[in-house]
Amino acid sequence: MTDTILVDLHDGYRVITINRPEKMNALNREAGMALIEALKDAEGDETCRAVILTGAGKGFCAGADLSGRNDPNRPKSAGSSIEEMWNPIARKLHNLRMPTIAAVNGFAAGAGSSIALGCDIVVAGKSAKFLQAFAKIGLIPDAGGTYLLPNLAGGARARGLAMLAEPLPAETALSWGMIWAVHEDAELMTEAHKLAARLATMPTAALTMIRKVLASGATNSMSDQLEMEREYQSMASQSADHKEGVAAFLEKRAPKFTGKLN
Fold this sequence. Notes:
The chain is an alpha/beta fold and 262 residues long. It has two domains: 5-199, 2-enoyl-CoA Hydratase, Chain A, domain 1, CATH 3.90.226.10; 204-250, Lyase 2-enoyl-coa Hydratase, Chain  A, domain 2, CATH 1.10.12. Helix content is 45%, strand content 15%. It contains ten helices and nine strands. A six-stranded mixed β-sheet has the order 1-2-3-4-6-9, with helices on both faces. Helix 4 (145-153) crosses helix 5 and helix 8 (204-216) packs antiparallel against helix 9.
């Protein structure tokens, strides 16, 4: 791990911080690959049942670090960096075995916006803004942006955000249903920690199953979705956490979930 990505361990969860404040936390290759490794490390830790992703300083993440883009020796196509770094980040967030929280402080721009919106629960400071900046430099949204935007904001708003490249204030993102909550800037991380601590006590495997089923609902037919519900509910109903949840309900006590299916 490099100092471009910081990892803080807490009881049941981790905080992963993009630490390039001098670049508004824009990711170069080193930082991007370190972020992938930090997510993998979290996944491999059985005691970790939630992850907070945030940025150091005054911004969440400004997307790709454009320094050196005019270097004649640099590959002209962005496809290689997408395949090596941006797609793995997006896939890892989408498939991580525990829920993720984006704590968005300041700007989340370009791929940084996609990374934030790719987390399960997005909380933002009042000063935060989401910016699909790609069109300003002749590119299209990536890191999952073309999947996330229409699903979260709807087609018309997704096109407006992507084509006009205007900053979207956190309060508007909240009113559009794109994010979960907006907090005073000074209270953002306190609220994110509360959420992570709460998620860390919940049935982790069931939460990630919820993520997968909801994501499929955007493209499945009703018939296919009902079948998927049957399949996943069958698995969930046989889990130790389901048994514990029912027992706790009947005994009128707080459940003690392990976060595992078995």
